[in-house]
Amino acid sequence: MSDTSSNPRTYIHPVWRGIGCLMLAFTPVMGWALADLTMEPLSQYFPVPPEMRGIPPFVWKAVQGIPNAATIFSDFYVRLSYTFLYSFVLFGVFTVLYSVIYRASGGGRGSPLDAPMPKQRPRRRR
Predict the structure, then answer these.
(1) Number of separate domains in the chain
(2) 26 by DSSP, 3-state: which?
């Protein structure tokens, strides 16, 4: 393997390497926070089935000694559903935003590991 830091064409800035890791770590946390904020207003418009309300037994056994655990983990399945929904949407938005910023900042169209672009020949005129 060659040293990528010596070749400016193949050098990848460390910020671009770490953004995916940060998105992967912070997107579910932001999804949980958004689910917590929007669960009550959305329950007025979208009724939640009674099976999704309450604390599941496996969660209750895990958090039984934590103070205020019943209020934090109430309606666990509803929060988890909203968290997955918001995480999916946020990850899509962040991916599009990331790709726009990357291309605008001068990111390359490919790396040395990508296949070369096909060369198109001009069509002959008769």
Answers:
(1) 1
(2) helix
Q: Residue 20: in which H helix or E strand, if any?
A: helix 14-45
Tokens of 38: 């929007």
**Digit-coded pLDDT (tens) for 60-100:** 777 778 787 777 777 888 889 999 999 999 999 988 988 88
- Tokens representing 56? 């599941």
Whose structure tokens read 């209750």? 60
Residue 77 inside a domain? The answer is yes
How far is residue 73's CA from residue 51's CA, in Å, rounded to a whole number? Answer: 15
For the chain, the C-alpha Rg in angstroms (whole number) is 24
Q: Is residue 112 part of a domain?
A: no
Domain annotation covers residue 80: yes
Q: Which domain holds residue 63?
A: 14-104
Pairwise CA distance, residues 118 & 16, whole Å: 27
